[in-house]
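HOLO CASE FILE
Compound: FE2/S2 (inorganic) cluster
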Amino acid sequence: MAELRLGGRTRDIASALAPHPEASTLPREFYLDPEIYRLETEHAMRAQWLPLARVDQVPEPGDYLATAILGEQLVITRDRDGELRVLSNVCRHRAMPVAEGSGNCSVLRCPYHLWTYRLDGSLSGAPLMAARPGFDRSAIVLPQVRHEVWQGWLMVNLGGAAPPLSPQVPTLSAELAGWDFTDLRVVASSSYDCPWDWKLTVENFGEYYHHFGLHKDSLEPFLPAKRGRCLDNRGEPWNSSVIDCSSDYLELQGRVMPGLDADLATTMQIFTVFPFLCAGAQGSSAFWLQITPQSPRRHTVTWHVLVRPEQAAWSDAEEFAAMSLSAIDVLQQEDARACRGVQAGLGSTTAAPGRFADLELSLWQFQVWLLGRLAEGSR
Ligand code: FES
Ligand SMILES: [Fe+2]
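Model generated. Tokens follow.
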């Protein structure tokens, strides 16, 4: 495939799809054209598995969490039997979001006219409606969105037709086994508005090559770029890179996640399950960079700090969470400088695809996957 017909135009993607050593980055219009963004949302987002929350964010029976992704208003519920559901959060009366924020409840009650739904989405009450001709309460239910739990993430497939996620990423699941992401819990979060294309965040997150540039004084002394390596994804929809830490980095973190193998504790591993489950782990803790696309060239990122349940009870847990968020803030500002700059650079007609470094195999894996999804969608 050398060309791709997208948004009524033919795009030359031959150099983007060349083998990694010879390949170039995506043409600039992939970061500029709202029509390409629309096709991405359809084929590379809605048709795929997207991270919505960590299951530990709705741990108890009766817990709910209202959220939104790609314009879909959703509410995650855990019923009395512990079963998780992702429901449309749109009232079947006049479309008011039924739940706001998060909490614990026995039913969800729409604040507008008090229609009431059980945690499985079925309507349990609708004031003054019983006598309406043909009004059948039992036929009214908040539609469910397909979900799957992978490594503790609640993943959703808005399109409803994606093949199950877990069998698509067996190599990654094996690569991450030592970290045991499954029962990690979110202890701190911080959000940032990102006025640039979502892919710039995914790409920036996915490589260590920029440590000696952007993070010269922050990360490079502890996580030197030259000690990083990208993993072979065997054609599966993910990328991942590992980097060896300096010994003083472990000291700086001041703790090791209980049960973690000593060799793993001296590394950091990052991964992205495409399109945008971006996360990673290091000796002390793990992290999730939650991406919420808003519009072409705008998304929100929320950084979450994840720790083992035992760690959350340690006496200095709050201090550690605050320290982690302040370190993240420094890195986010440094990364934002590049993402903002690259978006501006790509807006210039002189911008041209560039060649990849060895440490950017992960970016090539991402773009090959993305182009594959767009090609599939344009057929
Ligand atoms: S919109 Fe929900 S009860 Fe009317
Ligand atoms: Fe960075």
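CASE NOTES: The first strand starts at residue 3 and ends at 6. The pocket of fe (ii) ion (ligand 2) is lined by residues 204, 210, 214-215, 331, 335 (CB under 6 Å).
CLOSED: yes
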